[in-house]
Amino acid sequence: MRARRALLVVTVLTVLTSCGVTVQRQPQTLDPSSVPYGLLEPRTRPSVAPASPSPRAAALPVYFVDGDALTELPSRVPDGSTLDRVRAVLHALSAGPGSSERARGISTAIPDRLRLGVSSLRGGTATVALSGDPRDPSAEESTLAVGQIVLSVTSVVGVDRVRLSRGGQAIDAPLVDGSLTSAPLTAADYDALRQSAASGKGR
Predict the structure, then answer these.
(1) Which of 3, 21, 174, 182 lies at a C-alpha separation of 20 to 30 Å from 27?
(2) How far apart are CA 41 and CA 121, in angstroms?
(3) What's the count of helices (H) and strands (E) in the chain, helices before strands?
(4) Residue 196: Cβ-neighbour burial (10 angstroms; 0-12, 13-18, 19+)
């Protein structure tokens, strides 16, 4: 084995010598000025800042008043559980339309002091608790306000019906035809208030 290693070293030295490369038996310190530019600088990988993950969000329609009808405005709702999304939609409803939408004549029938919360979410039915505003709005305002709530909340996947309550007790809700019902409300109950449906009535 030692003989083979010695033969290999001799062969390598012979090849290098024949190529004109001077073989030095002892290491030699080089003058840094004689080394080509950049070869002595340590090589490091360029640091790349990890991309910060953007929070996932979905654009859900939230309904506001435009004339005597309801129009939808897209609202960015953070991703989460069905309950989290319902709460986010109710928050967007309570906040009302933005200044640019108000400049276009879009408003809300939900009173400023009315608070909207979720008291339960079972079997596709969300119970929305009303509090904070004891006054009774007009029948038209009530219908539009309830329509805003029902159409907006049922836009959340997993919610098919809405029940309204106040003080822990279910309350009667006005329908489009002026009647009252204590049954859970669906989007179909207020489809006639959607802007496209309302504008088609006079044709």
Answers:
(1) 3
(2) 64
(3) 5, 9
(4) exposed
